[in-house]
Structure formats: structure tokens, C-alpha cells
Amino acid sequence: MTASFYKTVYQRKFNEMPRWKKLAIVEDSERNHWSGLLTDFVKAVIEEAEKEYANSKKAETASPSGYPAESEIKSKKTIKKKS
Predict the structure, then answer these.
(1) d(C-alpha 81, C-alpha 79), whole Å
(2) Integer-rounded Cα radius of gyration of the chain
């Protein structure tokens, strides 16, 4: 996972907040004061970034045609027994 996932989610969630929350988070961050508001915000950013990362990985392995990707087929091959 790259920092870009966290940064994107941070910016999106931060911009969605009311002005007073933004000011409180910036102030707490500058003072290194881990208030409940800051802790909850950071936790939400981490959870959402990890969720988006997992979803992006699933999308990479899925085939656009709806059929399993070649990597999935190779991992699911079974050995046929000789009769």
C-alpha cells in the first residue's frame, strides 16, 4: 500500500467536515494532542484507505469480461488422476 491511498482519503474526509472540526483537527495535530476527535478522524482515514486498497487489488485481479483472471485460473487448477 502506498501513502497516496492515505493522503487521498485524508483530503477527501477532511474536506467533507464542517469548518469547526477542521480547525480542531489542525490545532490538535499541531499541538500533538491526541483528542478523541483527532483519534477518530485518523482511525476513519486508515480504515477507509485500507478498504479502498483492498478493493483496488480485487479489481486488478478481476477480468473485465467477467471470467476469472488468468492468475485465478492457474491457482485453481487441479491435478487429474490417471485412470
Answers:
(1) 6
(2) 21
Give the pTM.
0.67
Sign of the C-alpha dihedral computed for residues 16, 20, 23 and 28 taken in this order: negative
Cα→Cα distances 63→9, 55, 83, Å:
26, 14, 34
62 or 4, higher pLDDT: 4
d(CA 19, CA 53): 28
Q: How many residues does the chain have?
A: 83
The runs of H, that is alpha helices, within 1-35 are 3-16, 19-31
What nine digits make up the cell of 34? 491526541
